[in-house]
């Protein structure tokens, strides 16, 4: 039993659904009437053009059995197009418009448009046909008797083709697909025809019409619903082409589309202004919006294409936008429909909305909705020329053998998703991976492409790249400069101290060096040098600037070493020749006597020092060295402390006096 609110929700949704169904029926009836009257044909369906030609006895079917038949059909259609267009320009009628559509469709059927995305085949087909009409009206064509027949080509020779003399126009036999065995104008005509026309466009056009070019005449045409008086009232400035379409057509399309969008927005607000507690009624009412979008978009697209007659690049924009909107509306409608069905199941089984079962049903509905959406998106992508449909289809293939076969692809797909989610690197980042360095150029579905330093392009599977240790140099806040400076062994200790001090002063003063990270130390006695280790950070993230900073620092270090009177060491051997004065006998005897005294006293420090001696020696050396800045500050602190102790009242005990005396002795 549904409550009163649920019943009201159903009635409200039913009322809106009934109104929309009536609108859809009316729109469908109008389109059916137009289809019956116009007998319009499909964009690339050869059978459709043949059927339309058979329905119209004034137009003969085309023949594509040989290059001669194809060229003959094209020239015949050109003559019929000129004759029909001449009459149409003087008096518009639906019959003549239908005949023009059939003729243009038949001309497009003579072209191989298999390489063009389905959504753009009509536009590109018309453009290519216009360029071919311009070319054939300017060049001298061979006699039809000299054009080869089908028997002139051997079946073993592939591809069989014939080129019109003095032109790059080729008629090629199709060896596969639905048009197999037919001779059509090559698929390269989409590119070749416009280029060749630019070469010969100054030649006069041989035609009975008062035109100078076919590809400029087609964009100015309109359907029978646009009165001739409207066209005559359009200023010349708005007749000029922009995106291969007259400006007034673009303005009309934009204004009509904006008005339709506003009406859809108002419709959406009206049907959703009332809240309802019934989930099913709410979803049914929400589904009215995508249905309205589909009806409006289909109707406007038909009006723009067949009445206003958009063309060229702007036509591609209109068709692609229509495809995207229809895809979005279809996904929206199916998503709401699936949610409505599952919500109705939950209500019929009296499942609590907050229960686990209800959530499980909701997950199932969204999973199915996601899969359906992927299929719809894949189909739309195919129409737009994107290779996404094959990916979507591949994800649905089952079976163990197929799963094993596509396992690397799935791993790379998941790896790509992980790279997008984690974003260890982004496009444009300079990174290190393995033993290679490079800049990320793209992260695709299967592989990522990295441009190496030597300008080679490295393709890495996403699964491999996701598992590798990546060093992203673009995300570092500072760049490390590390080097070892080797000085000659003849360098005196004070010279070495001078070099160390001047190195540190220079690095602390450098505006591009992080002063907090400066580390310059006498590191080691090398085989042929006194090694100074330098480790600093440059305040930059750009590699070019990093190398400039490094160069500047090294040049300044070179000047400091030269100013110290020392020099850089290099692997060498020095031979010293002199008189051997032998060992110092007196000092040797003194050292031996001291060791003998240790032995007699039982204090020989081997294998280790006496613990008491260790305690006595602890912290007796001066570090930092006496005379340094830090040592001076420590001595002053101790001295101040000692003075403070001496200034205490006279009632201090004996231990305090001994401590003060001991500290003074240490300082002395």
Structure description:
- The chain folds into five domains: 4-27 and 262-393, no CATH class; 39-221, no CATH class; 404-474, SH3 type barrels; 477-563, Alpha-Beta Plaits (2-Layer Sandwich), CATH 3.30.70; 625-668, no CATH class.
- Strand 6 (430-433) and strand 7 form a beta hairpin.
- The protein is of the alpha+beta class and 668 residues long.
- It has a five-stranded antiparallel beta sheet.
- The protein is elongated, with a radius of gyration of 45 Å.
- The longest helix has 37 residues, at 312-348.
- It is built from 24 helices and 13 strands.
- The N and C termini lie far apart (104 Å).
- The counted number of beta strands is 13
Structural class: alpha+beta
**In which range does the helix fraction lie?**
55-70%
Counting DSSP H or I runs of 4 or more residues, the number of helices is 24
Q: Sheet bearing the most strands, described? A: 5 strands, antiparallel
Q: What's the average pLDDT? A: 76
What ranges have pLDDT less than 50 throughout 5 or more consecutive residues? 1-54, 641-668
In whole angstroms, the N-to-C terminal distance is 104 Å
* Principal-axis shape: elongated
Sequence of strands across the biggest β-sheet: 9-8-7-6-10
Radius of gyration: 45 Å
Beta-strand residue fraction:
5-15%
> What count of domains describes the coordinates?
5
